[in-house]
Amino acid sequence: MADEAPFQLLHSELVQYIYKSGENAETENGRNITKLENMGFRVGQGLIERLTKDTARFKDELDVMKFICKDFWTCVFKKQIDNLRTNHQGIYVLQDNRFRLLSHLSAGKQYLEQAPKYLAFTCGLVRGALSNLGVRSIVTSEVSIMPACKFQVMIQKM
Amino acid sequence: MADEAPFQLLHSELVQYIYKSGENAETENGRNITKLENMGFRVGQGLIERLTKDTARFKDELDVMKFICKDFWTCVFKKQIDNLRTNHQGIYVLQDNRFRLLSHLSAGKQYLEQAPKYLAFTCGLVRGALSNLGVRSIVTSEVSIMPACKFQVMIQKM
Question: Rounded to two decimals, what is the model's pTM?
Answer without folding.
Answer: 0.89
